[in-house]
Amino acid sequence: MSAPENDYAFGKDLTRRLRGFQGPPRRGLAKWQARQIFLLAVALTGLFYLLVSTQNRFFQPDVLQITLVIGALGTWRFGWWFTHAVRAEIYRRVKWPGMRARANCVWQAGWRPRRLHIQMTTYFEEPAITKRVIGSILGQIRRERIPTTLYIGTGSAYDELIIRSFVETHAQDISDDLAELVFIRQNQPGKRMAIGLILRAINRNGVHPDDLVIFMDGDALYGQDVLEKTLSMFGADPELQALTTDEEVICYGPKWIANWLDMRFAQRRLAMQSHAMSDKVLTLTGRMSVFRAQHMLSERFIRTIEADHLDHWLWGRFRFLSGDDKSTWYHMLTRGSKMTYVPDATVFTIEVIKENGLERMIQNFRRWSGNMLRNGSRAIALGPRRVKPFIWWCIVDQRIAMWTMMVSPTLAILAAFVDPLYLWSALIWVVFSRIVLCLFLFRYSRTVDLSWPFILYFNQVINASVKIFMIFHLSKQKWSNRGNQSAGGGGGLVARAQNWTAKAQLIIAVASFVTGLAIYIGLLPTPVWL
């Protein structure tokens, strides 16, 4: 569905969609409709019929070695998925209830932060979204009565006029002592510089180390009681330094993109709860994260956001364009800080997709994967003791998984040259295995969507392919959300040499990968020098 054409229609549609998220999410079979149960039963019956009626090609002598590799990798990947699922359940059922109970106790006893600082960046956002976001913030300030300064980083007067007009109309009952609005007009391009300017303004305003600071985006809409549910965690746990929240998505764009984003957020919930068992997370999401203000007093923290960079043997020193949430996360890792995830505090991400859906999907993967790869190597270098063993291995696994994910489809295609029916058997297995994985994911979604098994596999293959490309092109960055920024695309002689070297590396790596698998299955002869 495309976005409504005017502010009134947009706001009305947002209200309708948000109403669908009210109340606790349904659990178990309550999520399922009779039609979905019927379709799942038909799909499983059909797969079972194909398995028993189609000759099993997996254990034919000429392709047995292929099956052994695919089976070993499948066992590893499924085992890793199952490990996350078990850890997430332990967090949700055992660890989290105690954390929430302690936070509720300190909040009900009257604990509040001395002052709350909210830093938000916005850039030519849809007016209806901006008004709803500011309204959600003001509503919770009005309710909680926490002295708050709202710093808004903008790139022009466009967003400022919308916000100022809304506040003047809808916040007349909020005193200046309770809430203060500060605009920070950035004088250098990029979201990172906007955040840096805001943090310096927070410092000039006399921030106290025990204050709390919220990092959020201009399209992040607070759900119910977000301030109470997040801020109370810091009152209950003096060691906690940062946290991030649950997210839901409201998408204006192609239906399949909306389904893909819903699936991504379900994956995020499962993974975040698993990671939080180690008192760490893999990202302090830019949509909504909360920090102790003592970190804002650190020039190193501010410079990490403003000018984070990587020194690379091929690309030299290059600055990061996006990924400020990964930079703050890395800084917290270097300090050994305790971090957590709050599953019952929901922030709604409003996505308006006007361009081609597939192009937007690949752009997002390039941005997410690039941010992960650029920060992953230095996080790994911190070692398992600083990062925590499980989280450290999660980061290592991200770099391994992009190659292991491509082994099975590549082997299945190569095996078709040996036994054409092998590809059919592999396809049956792919559909069945993704249905099983999605049965886990449905536990972390509000609704059941039977397109997810197909979207999940498509997501995995595209994501792995983009990561393989990005690992050789770390300096290439593009961010269409903030003025269509890009980096790493210079046209000079040095830039052309760097790009050709990166392409050569990519071609050699992919060719070696495919050739090695072809030799393993006997499709190509083993070189005499091996």
TrEMBL record:
Keywords: Cell membrane, Glycosyltransferase, Membrane, Transferase, Transmembrane, Transmembrane helix
One Gene Ontology cellular component annotation held by this UniProt entry: plasma membrane
TM regions (residue ranges): 36-52, 64-83, 421-442, 454-474, 504-524
Main location: membrane
Sample GO molecular function, one term: hyaluronan synthase activity
GO BP: extracellular matrix assembly; hyaluronan biosynthetic process
Domain of life of the organism encoding this protein: Bacteria
Any Pfam family hit: Glyco_tranf_2_3
InterPro entries (UniProt xref): Nucleotide-diphossugar_trans
Subcellular location, record wording: Cell membrane
Name under which the protein is recorded: Putative glycosyltransferase alg8
Lineage per the UniProt record: Bacteria, Pseudomonadati, Pseudomonadota, Alphaproteobacteria, Rhodobacterales
